[in-house]
Amino acid sequence: MTVLAIARKELALYFGSFLFYALATVFLLLAGYFFYTNLGFFVLMGGMSLPRGLWQYQLLDVQRLLLVLTPLFTMRLFAEERKLGTLELLWTYPVRDAEIILGKFLACLAVVTVMVGATIVYPIMVAVFYPVAAGPLLAGYVGLWLLVAAFIACGLFLSALTDSQLVAGAATYGLLLFFWVITWNEAAVNEVTLHLLVPFSLFDRFYPFALGAIDTRDVTYLVLFTVAFLTFTFFALDSRRWRGLR
User: Fold this and answer.
1) Three-state secondary structure along 7-54?
2) Domain boundaries along the sequence of the chain
3) How far apart (Å, rounded) are the C-alpha atoms in residues 71 and 23?
4) I need a surface site. Which of 66, 138, 144, 192 has the fewest CB within 10 A?
5) Would you say 55 and 142 are in contact if contact means Cβ atoms under 8 Å apart?
6) Ramachandran class of 85: left when φ > 0, alpha when ψ lies in -120 to 50, beta otherwise
7) Are the CB atoms for 59 and 143 separated by under 8 Å?
8) Which residues have a Cβ under 8 Å from the Cβ of 61 and sit 6 or more positions away?
9) Torsion of CA 26, 207, 183, 149, to 10 degrees
10) Shortest CA distance to 232 belongs to which of 98, 106, 99, 103?
């Protein structure tokens, strides 16, 4: 119940904030623009595979939007509370660090899930005129949800390290970009090294989902990544709290 109470508090802050509506508007406008241009491309090309190719392109575009916008949702979660002094006040209540972390994580995940879920209107529009295979599309959205969870866990950890939202947001961008470009420079590493790096790339892990396939190895990696960063957040909070009590 404590986790749910914290989650409800965070949801109230999100939905009562102008920032959420501004970010959601930007996200939906850009996602709609990408959908329009992707659909136009496939209609003009004619012979290309609309059922698979359109959603693959669309999901990869949405993935990039989430890379840009998710840090703006996570940067305040702990940094703002630490700056205002409300985090220390929260520690005086009978609530555990794990409950605080999980409540904030679930609230942010719910908010971004609602935002991403709104894009389901695009396949519904296409389905009116053209058959849409539900299975591959569902796989893509499962991948997006797991990727978002990983992004949020990463942002939560970095927000717990500072009292500056700007620093937390910038650090989250930097770390997520690292996991994006880790396999880009094939010329700088040999084939063996590249093969070792690919499993650590969040975005290479998402690619099979965009193609409509759910691989248990990719699911496992994204889940473990999320759990690992939630654990790092717990240790960050615990260490900073005890240092503050000395």
Assistant:
1) HHHHHHHHHCCHHHHHHHHHHHHHHHHHHHHHHHHHHHHCCCCHHHHH
2) 2-245
3) 11
4) 192
5) no
6) left
7) yes
8) 31, 34, 38
9) 60
10) 98
Half-sphere exposure of 33 (CA within 13 A, CB side): 7
- 3-class secondary-structure state, position 214: coil
Element (H, E) at 70: helix 55-74
Residues 63/206, Cβ–Cβ less than 8 Å? yes
Closest CA to 105 of 222, 236, 237, 10: 10
Amino acid letter for position 214? I
Return the residue matching tokens 């797991």. Answer: 146
Neighbours of 51 (CB within 10 A): 16
- To the nearest 10 degrees (0 to 180), the angle between helices 55-74 and 134-159 is 20
DSSP conformation letters of 74-119:
HTTTTHHHHHHTHHHHHHTSS--HHHHHHHHHHHHHHHHHHHHHGG
Query: 101: how many CB neighbours lie within 10 A of its CB?
Result: 24
Q: What are the tens digits of pLDDT across the range 125-175?
A: 888 877 777 888 899 999 999 999 999 999 999 998 888 899 999 999 999
Using the structure block, give the residue that is written with the tokens 């290479």.
Answer: 204
Give residue-wise pLDDT tens across range 5-51.
888 989 998 998 898 899 999 999 999 999 988 887 776 665 455 55
For residue 138, give the nearest of 226, 209, 36, 38 by alpha carbon. Answer: 209
